[in-house]
Amino acid sequence: MKAVCVCFEVHLPLPVRWYWPREGYGEVHIEKYFDMERAVHNFTKLEKNLETLNDALSKSIDNGGKYTLDVSGVFLEQCQWSPSVVDGFRKLDQECVSFAASPYYHSVCSLFEDMDEFRQQVQKDVETIKDKFGHQTRTFVNTELLYEQRTMEVLKDMGFKCFISEGSPNVLNGSVPMHVYDNIVPTLLRHINLSEDLEVRFLDKKWSGYPLIADKFASWIAGMEGDVITLYIKYDAINTHLSNDPEILGFLRYLPLSLKKHNIEMVLPEEAVDMFRMKSLSSLDSMRTARYGMHNLMGNHAQHLFINELADLGKQLLKVQDPVKKADLQRIYRYLQQSEILLEMNLEERRLGYEMAVNDLLILSDIERAIIMAGKEEATR
Fold first, then answer.
1. Which residues are bridge partners to 230 per DSSP?
2. φ, ψ (nearest 5 deg) of residue 291
3. Pick from 29, 8, 21, 86: which is nearest to 335 by CA?
4. pLDDT, tens digit, 9 for 90 and up, residues 331-346
5. Which residues 6+ apart lie within 8 Å of 253 measured at CB?
6. Could you say which of 285, 305, 329 is where a domain stops?
7. Is the peptide bond before 211 cis (omega within 30 degrees of 0)?
8. Do residues 220 and 360 both lie within one domain?
9. Does residue 190 share a domain with residue 145?
10. Are the C-beta atoms of residues 180 and 204 closer than 8 Å to each other?
């Protein structure tokens, strides 16, 4: 029997605000560097439809569906503005829903040379999921589907059973993203085309697959070779579809029934690892990848500079001994690791990408000043 794993990323970044140096040399606080007004607006926009989307998932589960939710810590913190959102996810059938872990701050800390920050953020996410949903995570998804072999030992030590990453050509090396791959932590690779059929092309009337209905989608999967198809989709994208066309609700509801007609089962990633024999994929030992390619995160000098500065800041932060001051600085430091900050430095409109990079580096410089000053104040006591 063939299987399908569907994983939804539930995340909204905390957007960086335009920062001017004249605002520096004052108190350090979240609102100084992040646009909280825009964050509330974005959250409210998603929240409006979450009950409807979760109801569609619940009906899909009643029809045999199983889903994995990758809920970021950044999003869960925003849920303080509407606690009922967390309750909505709790109400889903826990036997048919699993929660994946990821770096708590949706951060790129796995790119740091020292893996300690990565381990700390993953542990914080695991504990938060346990606290919020009563679920022990077994599947890990790195931010932006990042893959680096050196993270595997860390994840194995932390007890993860399954890892999901991007099924990019350089990693697949001529293979297909439809197996469980042999690795230190058994690995599933996202099927990019099928995921984007739902995430990107669903409303595109010029697309040859439009309109996309569950029966058509299931027939495409039935015609493919392999054991398990892994779909990884942004929940916010499904919300956008709903705002423009309610047909997405019917698609979700009937997908399990359509798949069943073709003898295809919906399973959780950790179940897929037990169901299928693992395949060898030698390129996993040497290749790196991320959603749409590493060049999106590390494609220019500004991005490399920002990553290196972040790593150095982490070392300087260790010198701050005051627990309250350190916690405040560390929280801002970790929000600055959000992948969206790096992605904005690589926008197609190069001038805007450059301006964003200058803005982000100015913020980083001010945080560095605050960390250095905090360390010096304690050294002189």
1. 5, 190
2. -55, 120
3. 29
4. 999 999 999 999 999 8
5. 56, 59, 60, 63
6. 285
7. yes
8. no
9. yes
10. no
Q: Are strands 264-266 and 2-10 parallel, antiparallel or unpaired?
A: parallel
254-277 tens-digit pLDDT: 999 999 999 999 999 999 999 999
> What total number of domains does the chain contain?
2
b/e 7-28 (16+ beta carbons within 10 angstroms → b):
bbbbbbbbbbbebeeeebeeeb
User: Does 323 share its domain with 210?
Assistant: no
- The residue-averaged pLDDT of 223-232 equals 97
Structure tokens at 323: 């627990």
pLDDT of 378 reads 59
Query: Measured in Å, how far apart are the chain's first and last C-alpha atoms?
Result: 68
Domain with 10 in it: what CATH number? 3.20.110.20
Closest by CA position to 268, among listed 231, 223, 305: 231
Cα-flanking dihedrals φ and ψ of residue 203, to 5°?
A: -100, 5
State residue 377's pLDDT score.
Answer: 65
Q: Give the residue-averaged pLDDT of 126-146.
A: 97
Residue that terminates a domain, selected from 285, 305, 338: 285
Whether residue 139 contacts residue 162, with contact meaning beta carbons closer than 8 Å, is answered with yes
Q: Across residues 294-313, what is the average pLDDT?
A: 95
Give the integer Cα–Cα distance in Å for 187 and 285.
12
**How many other C-beta atoms can be found within 10 angstroms of the C-beta atom of residue 154?**
18
Q: Alpha carbon of 266 to those of 185, 217, 244, 251: distances in Å?
A: 21, 14, 27, 14
Give the separation between CA 362 and CA 306, rounded to whole angstroms.
10
Identify the bridge partners of residue 228 per DSSP, sorted by sequence position.
Answer: 3
Domain containing residue 345: 295-379
* Helix/strand/coil for 205: coil
pLDDT, residue 342, reads 96
- Whether residue 78 lies inside any domain: the answer is yes
